[in-house]
Write a structure and sequence with these properties.
There is one protein chain. The chain is an alpha/beta fold and 321 residues long. Helices cover 27% and strands 16% of the residues. The strands form five sheets. Strands 2-3-1-4 form a four-stranded mixed β-sheet, covered by helices on one side. It has a three-stranded parallel β-sheet with strand order 6-14-13, covered by helices on one side. Helix 3 crosses helix 9.
Length: 321
């Protein structure tokens, strides 16, 4: 994606690559915009692939983002939300990304900076709803810290307080739970539980169950005139699993009414029967929520069923009809 050159903040070489050893500790210039960027070294770079020099665009590639975090690189987001380039796109600002892709090739050639072009098959994600190329892009999201939260749920399965059948899934479960990442709980959808955070006009936010409650909280912390209409609720809603993880509790109204007769009778239950591909998405998270919000496991046994597949080995799915 040559248009992302505008967002490059480093060039990376493999420290064990003799052909690029002369670049160690140097700086290079981003073509067309003459911005100086450092050469960094990481064995993530494949010595055999292309020149062995990798342009690093932390704002527009997941792997580059990780390199950026590791080496403290700035992230320069060059895209507007509609797929055109913003002011960081320099002379291409306002142009569509695919038009820039063609134009930048011509401009590099005209500037005498292009060695060669060749057809290349890239792994590109397409939206299953719109069939449009997905552009990796930085955005503000909400995360839940998972490391401490998931420890009781890991221990419960490892010491067989909760039993998985077949038992081979214990290994899968352990691997996920020992390498758990913070959970991105926000989704840019138009349905679901909307995130109860309200942004203040001059920066900052408050979290509250209702807009009225948010307004009262906001009045207590701002030193300027504020009306309730000045508050803007976050438009994101929660990941669907974020409500599903409360299922064993919420089905008996155990969140709103924690000590009611039904939840005390039915929680914890005995058996859960489900499919193995949601062992982490749903099962592990229900166990985590159980220990966090009730102080005990939600169920004793988890029976993981086989899956009905077609002749191509694909599982039954609504999206495949």
């Amino acid at each position: 994606r040559p248009e992302t050159i505008m967002g490059d903040t480093a060039m990376c070489i493999n420290p064990n690559d003799p052909k690029n050893a002369h670049l160690k500790g140097k700086k290079v210039i981003v073509p067309l915009i003459n911005r100086s960027i450092p050469v960094i070294e990481d064995d993530y770079v494949d010595v055999e692939f292309g020149t062995g020099c990798l342009k690093v665009t932390p704002a527009h590639d997941v792997n580059d983002y990780m390199l950026g975090e590791k080496y403290n690189l700035p992230s320069i987001d060059i895209f507007n939300d509609n797929g055109t380039l913003n002011e960081h796109g320099a002379q291409y600002a306002g142009m569509d990304r695919f038009d820039v892709r063609k134009q930048i090739e011509k401009d590099l050639e005209a500037a005498g900076l292009l060695e060669k072009t060749e057809p290349y098959t890239n792994k590109v994600g397409f939206s299953e709803r719109t069939d449009v190329v997905i552009e990796p892009k930085l955005s503000m999201q909400w995360f839940l810290k998972m490391e401490k939260l998931s420890k009781p749920a890991l221990d419960a399965v490892m010491n067989d307080d909760i039993q998985l059948y077949p038992a081979k899934f214990k290994n899968t479960y352990r691997h996920w739970m020992e390498n758990v990442k913070d959970w991105c709980v926000s989704r840019q959808l138009w349905w679901g539980h909307r995130i109860p955070a309200y942004f203040l006009p001059q920066g900052g936010l408050v979290v509250a169950l209702t807009k009225e409650e948010a307004y009262q909280k906001a009045l207590a912390i701002v030193d300027y005139e504020l009306s309730i209409d000045d508050l803007r609720q976050d438009e994101d809603c929660l990941d669907t699993w974020f409500s599903s993880w409360l299922w064993p509790i919420s089905v008996f109204d155990g969140i709103n009414n924690p000590e009611n007769e039904e939840i005390n009778y039915y929680y914890p239950t005995n058996d859960l029967v489900t499919a193995p591909e949601i062992l982490f998405f749903w099962v592990a998270r229900m166990i985590i929520a159980g220990y966090e919000y009730r102080g005990e496991m939600p169920f004793k046994n988890v029976y993981l069923t086989g899956i009905v597949r077609d002749k191509l080995g694909r599982k039954m799915s609504k999206s495949l009809g």
